[in-house]
Amino acid sequence: MSKDIVELHEDVSKSSLYSEDLAPVSKENRTWNKWHLAAIWVGMAVCIPTYLLASYMIKTGLNWYEALIIIGLANIIITIPMVLNGHAGVKYGIPFPVIGRAAFGTKGVHLASVTRGIIACGWFGVQTWIGGLAIYAIFNAITGSTGELGLSIGKFVSFGIFWMINMYFIWKGTESIKWLETYSAPILIVMGVALIYWGYTKAEGFSVVLDQGVQLEKTAVIITSDEDKYYLNLNALKDKDGHLKVTEYNVVSDDITTWKSFTEEPILIGNIENVQVQFRNTDSEIPVLSSVVSASIVDENDSSNGKLLSYLIWLTAMVGFWATMSISIADITRYASTQKDQVAGQFIGLPATMMLYSFVGIFVTCAAVINFKDILIADDAPWDPVSLIARFKNPVVVVIAQVFMLIATLSTNIAANVIAPSNAFSNLWPKKISFRTGGLITGIIGILIMPWWLLNEISGFLIFVSGLLGPVLGILIADYYVIRRKKLELAELYNEEGIYTYNKSGFNRAAMIALLVGVFLALIGYWVPVLNFLYSLSWFTGFIISFVLYYLLMKKSI
Predict the structure, then answer these.
(1) Could you tell me the maximum CA-CA distance found in the chain, to the nearest angstrom?
(2) How far apart are CA 241 and CA 190, in angstroms?
(3) Are residues 253 and 318 in the same domain?
(4) Euclidean distance between CA atoms 314 and 325, whole angstroms
């Protein structure tokens, strides 16, 4: 046990700011070592959104190794403040809402913690919906049903079942979470390796699979211009031998249905508004149809600037992926026995796992392009593993694989999206709202936020969220390291009239100003195009501005 641990010796149990769930964790209850923490990160990082983001990066025009480089860089970047912010959790054994009282004030911290909590509720809902889809796929595999496209009663029932499973682990408490993460991590790694092996054996080579990434970079239908003339460019997939998987196309937006022989040559068109195209393969007994794809207009002269902007946006999005956890990481590190454990556990568990599982997503999606004959265009590729696994014909394989998906989703959801909001809501009214009640509130908001719609807007959601959370982290780190030199008055954090009430107002004016200015400048580019670069780097913008401004304001007031 580390000597750098401060324990609470005063009796503050009568304070309205105190509860058993928000109290410092005692030395004897610091049972999590570096491998527990690494396992938690494996459990959180190996999730379907990780898989989705990697594939979506390719879908927007990046190649597979560019995607992996950005993912690795972003996760190294975010792990550094994660470790810095986790220090106070280990030293004082307290969660983020209590630590945040020092910087924001006993009342001001609610603005930061509840904002983080609501965002986590959104993630909770998205993950629970994805888990529900896995249950729905299991039901279809067992009954032999093909399932329904779009929303259906069966999907909502499955969502409800998985929601109840999540509530069970919330009710059992943090030790059940440690157990879940410890045993799920190796299973999830094995699943990832198995998916890679499947793709390798079916395609007969790693290079064959990865070469398909070029195909996934191309949108099925784009419109280009040349000297005031507009051309329709069609991009269909090819099998591993280089043969086109499409024989015909139809411009669905025309007044009449006319199937024409597929061509890779640009097609001169007059009207460029609302152009929609569908593809089919007539070589098989039953013609295979693609989905209907809307054409996108591409400016070929802006490719270099567009590529750089895409790098920056995805780097910010990937940093923003764990922006919530970087703020509330003390909720987990408070159970660690030493600082070395929390540092090693996080660096072992996060960056490498994110790159590994992102590679799984990239590799398996590329493999699906050539292994499934009915995938005709990149837009129809099974970008998520639930859709991919549902395509397998063997129901036993489908059921086992989807159970693994459930474990992955459950372990991520509980650790990343329940602990923090539960503590945040508990901190609103410590004597009345317990961790369990906070978890129930999280679950209810996760339903009300309608995750079935939010899932389709993940990348945009991450950029916006980054602008909200970067400033919070900047203030926390500036306060703990620069202003207070890692020294907090533990008992005062629970004192209703102590130094962290800031003249009894409960708000630290410096933190409030730094937070509002940081958020404003990080998000203003969303509405003001000329300042879009600030929004594209919203996490970095908010973090740096709030860090510097908070330091200057606090230095002036000292």
Answers:
(1) 81
(2) 30
(3) no
(4) 18
Q: What is the mean pLDDT of residues 152-171?
A: 89
What does 310-351 look like in DSSP terms, one character per residue? HHHHHHHHHHHHTHHHHHHTHHHHTTBS-HHHHHHHHHHHSH
Q: Tell me how far apart the alpha carbons of residues 267 and 510 are, in angstroms, rounded to a whole number.
A: 60
| Residue reference for tokens 């998205």 | 126
Tell me if 3 is assigned to some domain: no
| 244 phi and psi angles, rounded to 5 deg | -60, 140
Cβ-based neighbours of 353, under 8 Å, separated by 6 or more: 41, 42, 45, 46
- Cβ atoms 519, 471 nearer than 8 A: yes
CA distances from 156 to 128, 132, 141, 424, 451 (A): 11, 8, 17, 28, 11
Cα Rg for the chain, rounded, in angstroms?
Answer: 25
Residues 250 and 375 in one domain: no
Task: Identify the DSSP state of 281.
Answer: E
Placement of tokens 């567009």 in the chain: 306
| β 267-269/221-226 pair status | unpaired
* Single-letter amino acid, residue 356: L
Do 278 and 326 lie in one domain? The reply is no
The mean pLDDT value for 153-173 works out to 87
Using DSSP, state whether 161 is helix, strand or coil. Answer: helix
Return d(Cα 290, Cα 278) in angstroms, integer.
6
Write out the residue range of the structural domain in which residue 256 sits: 221-289
**Do the beta carbons of residue 424 and residue 114 sit within 8 Å?**
yes
How far apart, in whole angstroms, are the C-alpha atoms of residue 532 and residue 443? Answer: 34
**131, 413 Cβ separation under 8 angstroms:** yes
Q: How far is CA 216 from CA 34, 59, 364, in A?
A: 38, 6, 12
Q: What is the spatial distance between Cα 508 and Cα 490, in angstroms, rounded to a whole number? A: 18
Q: Which amino acid is at 42?
A: V
Reported as type and span, the H/E element at residue 551 is helix 538-557
Structure tokens at 531: 């300042």
Q: Euclidean distance between the first and final Cα of the chain, in Å?
A: 35
pLDDT at residue 401 in the model: 76
* DSSP track, 473-498: HHHHHIIIIIISTT---TGGGG-TTS
Secondary structure letter of residue 254 according to DSSP:
S
Q: What is the mean pLDDT of residues 153-179?
A: 82
Judging by DSSP bridges, how do beta strands 221-226 and 260-261 pair with one another?
Answer: unpaired
pLDDT at 143 over 90: no
Q: Residue 505: name the closest of 111, 107, 99, 103 by CA.
A: 107
275, two tokens: 């152009």
Q: Are residues 477 and 518 in the same domain?
A: yes
| Range list of H helices, 173-221 | 174-203, 206-210, 213-216
pTM of the model: 0.80
For residues 452 and 487, state if they share a domain: yes
